[in-house]
Amino acid sequence: MILHRSSQCASNADEDVRTSTLHRPVTALRWLQVLAAVCAAILLWSSVGLAASPVGRPTTITVAPTVSVGTGPGGLAYDPGTHTLYTVNQGASSVSVVNTAHCNARSEADCGQRVGTIALPSGSNPQSIAIDTTTHTVYVADTVKNLISVINAATCNATDLSGCSQPPTLAPVPSGPANLAVNSATDTVYVTIVLGGSDTVSVLDGATCNAIVTSGCGQALKTVRVGPIPVAIAIDQSSDTVYVANNGINSTGDTVSVIDGATCNGTQSSGCGQVQTITVGEGPNWIALDAGTHTAYTVNQTDDSVSVINTATCNATVTSGCDQKTPTVHVGANPWALSIDQKLHSVYVSNNWDDTVSVLNAATCNATVTSGCHDVPPTVPVGAAPQALLTDPTTGTLYAANSGDSTVSVVNLATCDGSTTSGCRSVAPSAVVSTPFLNPPTKLTGGVAVDGSTKTVYVANLGWGTVSVLNSATCNAAQRSGCTKPAATIDVGGEPGEIAVDEATDTLYVANLAGSTVAVINGATCNATDQKGCSRPPATLTVGKGPYALAVDDATDTVYVTNPGASVGGDTVSVIDGATCNAVEQSGCDQSPATITVGAGPLGIAVNPATNTVYVTAAGKDFFTGGTVGDTVSVTNGASCDGTDMSECGQSPAQVTVGPAPWGIAVDPATNSIFVVNSDGGDGPASLSVIHGATCDGADTSGCGAAPPSIPGVGRAPNGIAFDASADAVYTANYENASVSIVSVRDAGASSGAPPREAVGSLPGNVALDLSNHTAYVTNSQNGTLSILTLGQSRTK
Q1: Which of 163, 571, 768, 794 has the fewest CB atoms inside 10 Å of its own CB, making it the most exposed?
Q2: Average pLDDT over residues 695-712
Q3: What whole-number distance in Å separates Cα of residue 670 and Cα of residue 727?
Q4: What is the pTM of this model?
């Protein structure tokens, strides 16, 4: 499972030539970044205010209608003359042909249509698509076959499919065509080339290679040398300027190349060797133009931002502003593409790891007016893993290509645009726990735990090596006066992951991923009301490599710690005697703990105190670096493997087969039920398995061999999990869906339909419940905040 970020592409923002493209990532790798070493960039504390949602206001998610297309839709192109939307389907080697006449914001009657299909060469990997409405030609770039497919749109469109079955004309191009754009004024097709170290743009003469004339489709192409890994391209026809976004090696690029289209086109090559450069955010992946404000916007994938470029002072003829400092807007997680609606003064940005689209106000954030660039933009929900976007201003519709579920979302922009936000996604209120980061995938908020005895919420800040301390009495679902700033911060180092609290000894245990240690903190002197001990260096205990999740068995005073290793290749659990290693007694903290061998990639752990059983999920060996996908839960008898009795820690535990890539796990001791979220790496349907503990525990494993029932429809890539005993409900933090699912497990077998979800911040990782305050706390990994939900609220999807 490898994340490819070097061949994503951009859209041409010309009104008559609307295009967009992209390359679908394998989403599991981002969790390797969670466990990887932290980069050294530090930002100033930024004031992240509380969300505007009043107390008790529902924050439910309503998703726009969709139309089903081929597998893995990436690029989009639109022909307004025939009301046709074309999608390139990376997983099907095809192009889908969608009739938008009755599948738009005004009429959804035909969104259930059976779309037309254009077959591309077998084994191809179509990356991008563009249309020249002047010659009625659709161009598709294929990264694997190194070809441009040339399709006749006059005989293959929404109302005339007669030519869709004809094999397209093929134009060979250099290795790795990623993106293309058309300048209809000069009849030129520009193609970015990313493989083979060429870092060039090829120039194809569209006058001799189109739907009707194909004599030049085999011609030798002109080339322009640009920056490293050029993935995105857009054309400003008013100044005849070509802008190329250079993603860089491993998405570390930060430039846009500027080409003079008047002297470098299908017939002219004198200016193909002269290129200007603009510096933007890190990892630019898409670029689009707003001709009305002379602004170019780039989506910067690595630092989750959008850069704003003044094209009036940096174009083919005016270069005085090419060294400009470009303002940036921070958006959602892993932003992929953007589209501009000049009529609505809105910029739409797809957030691939949030299943949302950010909405920027182009009237207050452009080349000359930047007052709105510092605002946090609202969002609208779409399908799974959105990539390409395209707006149709005539119907007020946004189309989003959802590579994760092979659909295109059809979004009504009437109530969610740059100035009107009443219909945008309503996000739960949040608390500030740490400084937001420039590159959030490597600087994440980790675990969260509640100490009911001291009314304290502890939040691990993985990137900063700290734990934030909040007062749950003044920061909860009903009272948020104490949510603006942590009461204290504990320096623990070592990339703190998850947290566990032992209320009996008033001890906080924190797994330090990088240091292979567990920090042992005195909660009696570092809590919401008493911070005198927060500045003291905590004691540490050495465990296995890459410790991540923890669980405390109060009955035996034992702490269990999973050790997934640096690349989640580990397979052990450390067993710590909490009686000799806690807040006040630390004589046993220097002892080597016993270990249990479990399934590979142990990322979740829970203890059922009623049966003295330890349950550990196994995501798979080297799961995040292309290894196997696990599907088991290990079952260990804690009665003979705890802090004082380690006689059977070396025994092979029983195994339960659950769904793919199980992550978080929670227990209901009252019903002896064990709940497991199966993330499927974010690349497939997630589910919640329900294990019957009465026949699958430390003493009785007779039922462990039977596949447990599961509840489908959980949000994408669920990670953290918590059980609400008061409502018989499970809360799952859906890492790639910016949401929390609320799953009723009162009668799991009777569940029907997808569980309701609430909107939270970007990359929600973990969840903890405070039943006394009727509050769920959810860590948002991207921006250092903690979402606050009300427990027991009636919700509908």
Answers
A1: 794
A2: 96
A3: 13
A4: 0.90
Residue closest to 290 by CA, chosen among 304, 311, 307, 276: 311
pLDDT of residue 15: 31
Name the residue with tokens 């194809």. Answer: 204
Residue labelled with tokens 């996000």:
427
Q: Locate the DSSP E strands across 578-628.
A: 594-597, 605-608, 613-618
Q: Using CA atoms in the order 307, 104, 737, 635, what is the torsion angle rounded to 10 degrees?
A: -150
Measured distance CA(445)–CA(432) in Å, rounded? 11
- How remote is the C-alpha of 670 from its chain's centroid? 35
The whole-number average pLDDT for the span 563-570 is: 81
Q: What is the pLDDT, as a whole number, of residue 313?
A: 97
* Long-range contacts, stretch 702-710, CB < 8 angstroms, 24+ apart: 704/635, 704/654, 704/655, 704/656, 707/657, 707/658, 708/656, 708/658, 709/748, 709/749, 710/658, 710/659, 710/678
Q: Two tokens at 272?
A: 């193909």
- φ/ψ of 522, rounded to 5, equals -85, 105
Q: How confident is the model at residue 148 (pLDDT cuts 50, 70, 90)?
A: very high
Summarize pLDDT for 735-772 with one digit per residue, the tens: 999 999 999 998 765 556 789 999 999 999 999 999 99
In whole angstroms, what is the distance from residue 719 CA to residue 733 CA? 6
Whole-angstrom Cα distance, residue 190 to residue 266? 9
Nearest to 414 by CA among 427, 398, 426: 398
Q: Quote the CA–CA distance of 28 and 548 in Å, as a whole number.
A: 17
Residues 6+ apart with CB under 8 A from 735: 31, 353, 679, 682, 716, 717, 718, 719, 763, 764, 765, 781
Per-residue pLDDT tens digits for 419-436:
999 999 999 999 989 865
- φ, ψ (nearest 5 deg) of residue 639: -65, -30
Residue 413 reports pLDDT greater than 80: yes
Q: Which amino acid is at 635?
A: V
More confident of the two residues 56 and 111: 111
**Which single residue is written with the structure tokens 């017939």?**
267
Among the residue ranges 75-84, 226-235, 776-785, the one predicted with the least confidence is: 776-785
Nearest to 547 by CA among 521, 522, 569, 573: 573
The residue to which tokens 């006066």 are assigned: 481
- Report the C-alpha gap between 502 and 508 in whole angstroms: 6
Neighbouring CB atoms inside 10 A of 278's CB total 25
Q: Cα–Cα distance between 495 and 457 in angstroms, integer?
A: 19
* Mean pLDDT across 87-113: 96
| 19: amino acid identity, one letter | T
| b/e burial code for range 357-372 (CB count within 10 A of at least 16 → b) | bbbbbbbbbbbeeeeb
Can you tell me the distance from the alpha carbon of 778 to that of 781, in angstroms, rounded to the nearest whole number? 9
Q: What is the C-alpha separation between 58 and 790, in angstroms, rounded?
A: 9
How does residue 46 score in pLDDT terms, banded at 50, 70 and 90?
Answer: very low
8 Å CB contact between 3 and 26: yes
User: Percent of the chain, pLDDT > 90?
Assistant: 82
- Confidence band of 198 (pLDDT split at 50, 70, 90): confident
